[in-house]
Amino acid sequence: MTRRPNVLLICADQWRGDCLSALGHPNVRTPNLDALAAGGMLFKKHFGQCTPCGPSRTSLLTGLYLMNHRSGRNGTPLDARHTNIALEARKAGYRPALFGYTDTSADPRNVDANDPSLKTYESVMPGFEAALHLPDEMEEWIADLLAKGYDLPDGRAGVFRPKADFDKPDDRGFRYIPTIYPAEHSEAAFLTDAFLKWLSVRRDSPWFAHFVFLRPHPPLIAPEPYNATVDPADVVLPARAPSLADEKRQHPMLAYELDRVSVPGAYDEHSPFDPVSANELEIRQMRATYYGLIAEVDHHLGRIIEHLKQTGEYDRTLIVVTSDHAEMLGEHHAWGKEVYFDGAFHLPLVIRDPRTAADGARGSTVDAFTEAVDIMPTILDWLGLEKPRACDGRSLLPLLRGEKPVDWRDAVFFEHDFRTVATQKAETTLGITSDQCNYAVIRDNRYKYVHFAALPPLLFDLVADPHETTNLADRPEMASTVLRCAQKMLDWRLTHAERTLTNMMITQNGVVSRP
Question: CA–CA separation, 498 vs 511, rounded Å?
Fold first, then answer.
């Protein structure tokens, strides 16, 4: 490459790690992402660091575990002292552009109490230039719909309402009803159109873009024709306990979460029914529509890749496609992402490194464990920039070259902070304090251990019980395994505790610093 390369970091909100046709999913069709993987690399055991959206994106963009960045909820301020991928890329002369959102909550110590940034958790992470900021209000997209003649008197509150007077067949569920606009006018199309326009005047200058799809995040409503992409009759029902009561017995936190989303509209906007107790047709349809939304994202991903190929930028652009967190899709009767199962934390990851060093490994899949915190150091390494000392992740470039370092991790670590600061609902329901509303997970190829601050632990044998249905933590014969997992988690946390200045020493000869 004769000039500085381009970087494209794509994040699709709430995309499950098993939802790629390249992995043999029976319903999902992702030809464009599959093709990107065939020319790059597919990471099969990639996990997010935390949930929900704001915390998970913070880990993705800062390279920090939740235990270090501490922005644990949508709305928990992100300490301004932390660096991130955009601030680091600016050191190399890039002006990182954002298309979509980062769900960043501003540090209130650095702004006036009347600053509007303290009224939203959807500010832009420092270092990014908002080429098109599209947070939950989606004002720019809604303005475009209004200009096209759509009747949206209630703005954002009505943009995802189902199409009126739609003739729904009896063998389709409620979520078969499409949006009021066709696919060419969706938020995914609008965002992609804007990005391609932005790229059109940057063919001769290097760029760095973070592109964020809202979909397949709920509400689970798709524009035509994506509402009909998958027949619900072909969809397998989710793995779950025989009854909701049986499910709740696994753990108090699971029971709390199932109760929390057992309200029409609490998970799926404008839905008239409770997703936890929905009938089989509605569950199949919700899953089918989710898969249709993935097909829509894949279509627009294909448009972006085709543009890069036509303009000659494909072979000088690092492309990373992933998600912030995943989606339970009815497994364990749960919907959304705020529970400890793999369904909420296992993510897709496809990376295409255009350089010749990656040629030998193109089209391969990686079975090694990778984490969301690895994305920042990977991009910095690819750009020839130094990884910040505080960063918890590791560069994936050796894996992209077909290598596997001998000291690579044999497990993944992730966390969840489920406190409800404003309402105290979780605290009151579970009888614990806000600071006790959290758990940490260590997961290897055999066992998954979930340690709660003030609630019983969980242990799953993932080989014998891949759906995580049976808790083994309280069985006497598993005590040594619980102890080993707990010790490994403690080792992990001790090793990764905040360490920005820990390898420095002030001496009479000045500062001694070790890498």
Answer: 19
What are 100's two structure tokens?
């979509």
Q: What is the DSSP letter of 105?
A: P
Active-site entry in 11, 50, 53, 437: 53
Tokens of 456: 């019983």
Residue 452's φ and ψ, nearest 5 degrees, are: -95, 150
The values of phi and psi at residue 481, to 5°, are -70, -40
User: Domain-by-domain residue ranges, the chain?
Assistant: 6-410
- Interstrand relation of 438-443 and 412-417 (parallel, antiparallel or unpaired): antiparallel
- Tokens in use for 93? 């002369």
Task: Tell me the C-alpha to C-alpha distance, in Å, between residue 114 and each of 79, 120, 225.
Answer: 19, 12, 45
pLDDT tens digits, the chain, 515 residues: what are they? 457 899 999 999 999 999 999 999 999 999 999 999 999 999 999 999 999 999 999 999 999 999 999 999 999 999 999 999 999 999 999 999 999 999 999 999 989 999 999 999 999 999 999 999 999 999 999 999 999 999 998 889 999 999 999 999 999 999 999 999 999 999 999 999 999 999 999 988 999 999 999 999 999 999 999 999 999 999 999 999 999 999 999 999 999 999 999 999 999 999 999 999 999 999 999 999 999 999 999 999 999 999 999 999 999 999 999 999 999 999 999 999 999 999 999 999 999 999 999 999 999 999 999 999 999 999 999 999 999 999 999 999 999 999 989 999 999 999 999 999 999 999 999 999 999 999 999 999 999 999 999 999 999 999 999 999 999 999 999 999 999 999 999 999 999 999 999 999 999 999 999 87
Active-site residue 485, yes or no?
A: no
Domain 6-410 has CATH 3.40.720.10: yes
